[in-house]
Amino acid sequence: MHSGNCRRALETLSPEETRRTLHELQVHPIELELQNEELRRVLKLAEAEPGKGATFFFPFRTPGDS
Length: 66
Prior knowledge:
This protein has about 70 residues and is mainly alpha-helical. It is built from three helices and no strands.
């Protein structure tokens, strides 16, 4: 969305919608960080046990797999 369109869309939000949107924007990075930490933890486990990790992450064969 063009920045001018975003600005107009933001101007039409009610105070409650503005609070809710601000809250979502504050919470979203926290949720992403938690997901990132979990992915790193699982990746470490997968690297420690390559055979199990491969089937956990990729339960199917991809083109080029031997």
